[in-house]
Design brief:
Elements lengths: L7 H4 L3 E5 L6 E2 L2 E2 L3 H4 L2 H9 L3 E5 L19 H8 L3 E4 L5 H8 L6 E4 L6 H5 L2 H8 L4 E4 L21 E3 L1 H14 L6 E5 L8 H8 L4 E4 L4 H7 L14 H13 L3 E3 L4 E4 L8 E3 L7 E5 L1 H12 L3 E5 L12 H15 L3 E5 L1 H9 L8 E2 L4 H6 L15
Parallel strand pairs: 1-4, 1-7, 4-6, 5-6, 7-8, 9-10, 9-15, 10-11, 15-16, 16-17
Antiparallel strand pairs: 2-3, 12-13, 12-14
Helix pairs in contact: 9-11, 10-11, 12-13
This protein binds adenosine-5'-diphosphate (ADP) and magnesium ion.
Length: 393
């Protein structure tokens, strides 16, 4: 998906409202992980470099339309200053005269952080009057919050009907990379699914499987598929109400000419916290399959190395326990190698992203998507209210 972005002349000297996602993990008055803040740095650099006057708006937690002091974005001022190396001013609302006054006195080069947009109930109702109110102090809107782009809120959608609007760097990059793997994959296209549950990913599996040349299914979700292939799965994760879906997916992907590979063997143990394990083709009655085994690693690696585009969603095992991390690690290596040979590799899914970072492969893949829910929605072919109005192809 190609998005309309801004040229310096579109924003130079303009009062610009930038939608970011500062919904960071926050505990004991501290930001636990500033990845989401850092993700907007390129857009901010480019806006300030072009001479824009920039205010930042975001949601933070779920205050449900009430003012909740524990969810005030004022608490993030220090972290935002540290990450961007800019002076940050804060105003304790996101609409009204306070914002207009603060914008009028904002020195170019500094940033203005507005209060949590979800303190107003109109935000999540996508209220058109509230969109006009919010737009009043501004001349331009830039959307950069990919992880909120599956929502139709005022700050992700409604305001685009009121102000000239553009996509920021992060949104453009997400559209470009997810566009490749969801719309125009380079062939051969290898899809890797894993993680805990089939039901979390049904939309994505359904939407993308027909596009792929090869579908690799590992992780906990594989056992629901293996069971429909009449394999013994012991006490492994399963979703009995998804057997029919699993059957249908395998049939329809195969009819469309795709190869669907399930694990040939598993690392089995008593449970995710076990301290001893073994490898077997079928899972014994009293054990769980907690990682893919060496034969599966070999099979999956071979497919991955032949790929020109790859989407990976869901780890191959309980990688949080080193005993069940080998499958996920081996696939990180394979995906990194394919990428170094010219494949486009996209990582979707929060836990898959953590695994790729944990094992040191973050800069060896093409792109790690910053959206959790948003990535799943995009990859299910659903509307993206925060992107669709900016689409130019
Ligand atoms: P993502 O966030 O990347 O979309 P999921 O949330 O679907 O991934 O799944 C991640 C979780 O799946 C991890 O916490 C991992 O421990 C778990 N998991 C992976 N394989 C198995 C398995 N065989 N049995 C049980 N849990 C598994
Ligand atoms: Mg997850």
């Amino acid at each position: 998906m190609k998005l309309k972005t801004f040229a310096p002349a579109d924003v130079a000297g303009k009062k610009t409202l930038l939608r970011v996602d500062f919904n960071v993990p926050f505990r004991d008055g501290k930001v636990q992980d500033d990845l989401r803040i850092r993700a907007h740095a390129p857009t901010i650099e480019r806006l300030l470099g072009a001479g824009a006057h920039v205010a930042l708006v975001s949601h933070f937690g779920r205050p449900d339309g009430h003012v909740v002091p524990e969810m005030s974005l004022g608490q993030l001022v220090g972290d935002v200053e540290r990450v961007y190396g800019k002076k940050v001013h804060f105003v304790d609302d996101c609409v009204g005269d306070k914002v207009t006054d603060a914008m009028n006195s904002l020195p170019q080069g500094d940033l203005l952080l507005l209060e949590n947009s979800r303190f107003h109930p109109e935000e999540q109702k996508n209220d058109p009057d509230f969109a006009k109110l919010m737009a009043r102090p501004f001349e331009v809107f830039v959307m950069d919050a990919f992880s909120a782009a599956h929502r139709a809120d005022v700050t992700t959608n409604g305001i685009m009907s009121v102000l000239p609007s553009f996509a920021g760097n992060l949104l453009v990059k997400e559209g470009e990379m997810l566009g490749i793997v969801c719309e125009k994959p380079h062939i051969p296209y290898v899809l890797i699914f894993g993680g805990a549950k089939v039901s979390d990913k049904i939309g994505v599996v359904k939407f993308l499987s027909d596009l792929a040349n090869t579908v690799l299914i590992g992780g906990g979700m594989a056992y629901t598929f293996l069971k429909t292939d009449r394999r013994a799965i012991g006490k492994s994760l399963r979703e009995e109400d998804r057997y029919v879906f699993a059957r249908d997916i395998m049939d329809s992907a195969r009819t469309a000419g795709a190869k669907v590979y399930l694990p040939l063997d598993s690392v089995v143990a008593d449970g995710p916290n076990a301290t001893t394990s073994s490898v077997s083709d079928d899972v014994p009655d009293d054990k769980m399959g907690l990682d893919i085994g060496p034969k599966t690693i070999e099979l999956f690696t071979k497919s991955i190395l032949s790929a020109k585009s790859i989407l990976w969603n869901g780890p191959m095992g309980v990688f949080e326990n080193p005993m069940f991390a080998e499958g996920t690690k081996a696939l990180c290596e394979a995906v990194a190698k394919a990428t170094s040979w010219g494949a486009i590799s996209v990582i979707g899914g929060g836990d898959t992203a953590s695994a790729v970072r944990k094992f040191g492969f973050a800069d060896k893949v093409s792109w790690i998507s910053t959206g959790g829910g948003a990535t799943l929605e995009y990859c299910s072919g659903k509307p993206m209210p925060g992107m669709d109005p900016l689409r130019i192809d």
